[in-house]
Write a structure and sequence with these properties.
By secondary structure, this protein is α+β, with helices and mostly antiparallel strands. The protein contains 13 helices and 16 strands. Among the domains are: about 90-205 and about 240-250, Ribosomal Protein L25, Chain P (Beta Barrel), CATH 2.40.240.50; about 360-385 and about 410-434, no CATH class. The protein has helices at about 10-25, 40-50, 55-65, 145, 165-175, 200-205, 220-225, 230-240, 325-335, 350-355, 370-375, 380-385, 415-434; strands spanning about 65-70, 80-85, 90, 100-105, 110, 130, 135-140, 155-160, 175-180, 185-195, 245-250, 270, 280-290, 300-310, 320-325, 335-345. It starts with 8 loop residues before the first helix and ends with a helix. The relative contact order is 0.16.
């Protein structure tokens, strides 16, 4: 792995040991359905008794207890990374003329299917409802309704910020430090969401041609919103997702706590897809990133530890790199949207080859001959073709000949024909989903 020998393995080892505390404490729990399952218990129990201070010994620990496994999406050679950080914002414990944007805690009538009602940090995916009475469940309020004050005055306010843009970025990052006038700090962390899918506001600005894709960054979004307050309000509400926070008792020296429940390590912690990966898994991520400046291509070859997750982090080789707190961390993380190579370190107790033999894989794509019998139709073109013709705009269209549907040939009989048809049905479903 290029760059493996030059990395700071001791820093990675210390981050790994932090993840091992909750892993090694697990006893008698059934193995998870994910590929790694509970295989991290063995190296974690070993690491628990090794307080290493030597760089070489930390490197040897990973080489002795793990095997490197290159991962990516099927058909792709590289993964994709973004960055995140903890914003530092000015705020107030009470509402004033300057600080009038509330930071809400989780409402008591918010219900997440399958989650314990009083648990901290509800899943950021899944069905979310608003309870009316004892039995009735309806969709929870979206961002526009909440910004318009539908839950105001219920005692849910943790603190108050200057503007909605500050709140939006705190919600995107999942945590924030709110500085008060007396010099103290309120630490807030993600606690729940309102059930609507997250819509990236940056993507909307790209699609509208407002900010070119190659120039997109969080700072560009902030600048545009500051210059266009009316447009910023409309843009925010395109993202109907809304995050509720909880106040956490952390000092200014403590880092934000990730979804695993351990403090994050700047430059070593990553958020991954929790549906696929297990917290505590080491990933060696290699490539070039604009760390020094927007135009720089700084080599990045570093062992990172999975300790967090996010609703936008989807896929096997997909990670959000944590850079710490403050404006500098925000500038670096805000310009990251880059392809990188991923190597997952798998505990030696787990044989990935043997496990892979039992893993279901998609059927083969249909042959060209079979695919021609079932042409793919673009829904947008199909809908536009089905619209009624305006007689005044296109009078010739009324007399145009109507094409008769051509009947498809009968499918071939036999096992081979049935298998090809079955493969096509799977392929058609897969294409429709994507």
């Amino acid at each position: 792995m290029p760059g493996w020998r030059d990395d700071d393995h001791l820093a990675a080892y210390n981050a790994f040991r932090a993840s091992c505390r909750p892993i090694a404490a697990q006893h008698g729990l059934p193995s998870e359905s994910k590929a790694l399952g509970t295989s991290l218990r063995d190296p974690c129990r070993i690491a628990k008794g090794l307080e290493l201070t030597d760089e070489g010994k930390a490197k040897a620990f990973f080489e002795e207890h793990f095997l490197p496994l290159r991962i990516s999406r099927l058909g792709e050679g590289e993964g994709f990374v973004t960055g995140y950080y903890e914003p530092v914002l000015d705020g107030s414990r009470t509402q004033t003329d300057i600080y009038n944007v509330p930071v809400y805690r989780r409402p008591s009538n918010l219900f997440v299917r399958g989650a314990k009602p009083n648990s901290a940090g509800l899943p950021n995916k899944g069905q979310v409802f608003r309870k009316i009475g004892r039995r009735k469940l309806v969709p929870y309020y979206d961002r526009a309704e909440i910004e318009d004050g539908v839950i105001a005055g219920r005692g849910l306010e943790i603190c108050w910020l200057k503007d909605q843009t500050d709140l939006l970025f705190a919600q995107i990052q999942g945590s924030a430090r709110v500085r008060l006038a007396d010099g103290s700090t309120v630490r807030i962390n993600y606690d729940a969401h309102n059930g609507y899918p997250y819509t990236p506001v940056g993507r909307i600005l790209i699609d509208r041609g407002i900010i070119p894709k190659e120039q997109m960054s969080m700072q560009k979004i902030r600048d545009w919103m500051a210059q266009n307050p009316d447009g910023a309000k409309e843009l925010r509400r395109q993202n109907r997702s809304y995050v509720f926070f909880r106040e956490v008792q952390l000092s200014d020296k403590d880092e934000a706590v990730g979804a695993q429940g351990v403090p994050l390590t700047p430059g070593r912690s990553i958020a991954v897809d929790k549906a696929l990966h297990v917290y505590g898994t080491p990933f060696f991520i290699e490539g070039e990133l604009p760390i020094e400046s927007e135009q720089s291509r700084t080599p990045f070859r570093r062992l990172m530890i999975a300790q967090d997750t996010g609703s936008a982090i989807v896929g096997p080789a997909r990670a959000d790199l944590y850079f710490g707190a403050g404006a500098d961390a925000g500038r670096v993380s805000g310009r990251l949207r880059h392809n990188m190579r991923f190597v997952m370190l798998v505990p030696r107790s787990l044989d990935p080859v043997a496990r892979g033999r039992r893993m279901p894989v998609p059927d083969e794509r249909p042959s060209e001959k079979i695919a021609k019998l079932f042409p793919q139709v673009d829904p947008q073109k199909e809908n536009s073709a089905a619209k009624p013709v305006d007689a005044s705009a296109a009078p010739a269209a009324q007399n145009a000949p109507v094409a008769k549907p051509v009947p498809l040939p009968e499918p071939r009989r036999g096992i081979k024909a049935e298998n090809e048809t079955r493969r096509h049905r799977h392929y058609r479903h897969h294409r429709t989903y994507r």
